[in-house]
Amino acid sequence: MAQLMLSVMGAFAEFERALLRERQREGIALAKQRGVYWGRKKALTVDQVQALRQRAQAGKAKTALAKVFGISRETVYQYLR
Question: Tens digits of per-residue pLDDT, 52-61?
């Protein structure tokens, strides 16, 4: 009986979580339509991205670039793509 109760409670919890995520996606979609949801701000400005790319083409190490601009190495690679 205890196993059955745990299974039912687990299924109910999964259902509630699915409903919550669906409402969240709908809310984000509505906010984007209204123009009030832009997501996360960019780590670097356009000028900083240009400087980053110039320094990378000049052969500067990616780790050093990350330290100079205050971002992670992965972010450096994303901007260079």
Answer: 999 999 999 9
